[in-house]
């Protein structure tokens, strides 16, 4: 009972480093919410599974950053718990995207290649900004490592969307977009599993200390 209470309370009053973490996480949270809205809207209009996947990934990132804000200044156990929640969230969204890929494959929607390319490039540029904000703090806790993994996954997904957009334009087929949707599903599920592994390691280290 007493241990749970300690896990839920800050270890110490917020210092300058904690304030810096909060400021960084608040910035990337707002950025990813804007990305999810913008990319998701284009994905719907352009009938692109890849872009819808990228939007879901950005939304998952925003969720990670939101729960990571809670973890700032708290115990290692609390941070591991937040990272575990982030991993579960990412896996759940990956499964949701898989369902969407299957639905679009059955419906036979035709994506717009140029919209995929331009949107993915813009999204990737914004992700670079997020990585620059997170880089100095990625070793300051498992919750921030989780945030770094999420944003790195976004870069891989956007690179794939650009390539599939080119393929859609050259072939006139929706197959490349559906394939990149499946690739994004794999990236998302792998990232979620990696975060869960890091959370388990952090929890074991905290228990052994």
Describe it for me?
The protein has helices at residues 2-8, 16-46, 49-71, 76-107, 113-134, 142-171, 175-208. It is mostly helical. The protein has one domain (2-208). The longest helix has 34 residues, at 175-208. The two termini are 19 Å apart. Residues 1-12 have low confidence and may be disordered. InterPro entries: Cation_efflux_TM, Cation_efflux_TMD_sf.
Q: By helix and strand content, what is the structural category?
A: mainly alpha
Largest sheet: none
Radius of gyration: 18 Å
Shape: elongated
Name the helicity range. Answer: over 70%
Give the count of structural domains. Answer: 1
Strands, total number: 0
Strand proportion, as a percent range, falls in under 5%
Mean pLDDT over all positions = 77
Distance between the termini: 19 Å
| Count of DSSP-assigned helices | 7
Membrane topology: Multi-pass membrane protein
GO molecular function: monoatomic cation transmembrane transporter activity
Organism: Roseicella aerolata
Main location: membrane
Q: Can I get a quick summary?
A:
This protein is mostly helical. It contains 7 helices and no strands.
Key terms for this structure?
mainly alpha, Cation transporter, Cation_efflux_TM, membrane
Set down the secondary structure blueprint.
Blueprint: H1 2-8, H2 16-46, H3 49-71, H4 76-107, H5 113-134, H6 142-171, H7 175-208
InterPro entries: Cation_efflux_TM (IPR058533), Cation_efflux_TMD_sf (IPR027469)
Subcellular location: Membrane
Pfam family, one: Cation_efflux
